[in-house]
Design a protein that fits this description.
Strand order of the largest sheet: 1-2-3
Number of helices: 6
Helix content: 40-55%
Distance between the termini: 7 Å
Strand content: 5-15%
Length: 150
């Protein structure tokens, strides 16, 4: 993002559960993940419970690439999911499933980007994170969502 440009708004297709991953991304992850599909929702809710209160840190530290009414999407360092997995005590398979779900959701959020090639290149060198921003998950609710890392 350059200057104070507003990140693109993406269409929300959130399942309305305790995690910000939509049905399409969830189905894609379930087909490819090494954990049972029925475990994914609880695993994603557990990760959301950890990330939600940290959203203020993400807004200050990372590039935000999409904003929706119920979630925000960020590009983070490649080893981000290793540190999240360690913090939450996730197995390698669980961590990979969570990362894959977030990557699929970020790909959908980036589908509205003006330069698809630029977006795909960014995902080759960084990882994606989607954080739910519902009232109970807003984290640092006093910080306006317009602030982006540069």
């Amino acid at each position: 993002m350059v200057g104070n440009e507003e990140p693109p708004k993406a269409e929300s297709t959130s399942p309305g559960g305790d995690y910000p991953i939509d049905g399409t991304a969830l189905m894609k992850t379930a087909a490819l993940a090494s954990v049972p599909a029925e475990r994914l929702p609880a695993l994603l809710a557990r990760v959301q419970a950890d990330l939600g209160p940290r959203i203020g840190d993400y807004r200050r530290r990372y590039e935000r690439i999409a904003v929706e009414s119920d979630r925000e999407t960020f590009l983070v360092e490649p080893d981000h999911w290793a540190s999240v997995g360690e913090r939450l005590g996730l197995s390698d398979r669980e961590r990979d499933a969570v990362a894959r779900a977030h990557e699929a959701a970020v790909e959908r959020a980036g589908s509205g980007q003006t330069s698809r090639e630029e977006f795909e290149t960014a995902l080759e060198i960084r990882s994606g994170v989607v954080i739910g921003t519902g009232d109970e998950r807003a984290g640092d609710a006093t910080e306006p969502p317009e602030r982006d890392a540069e």
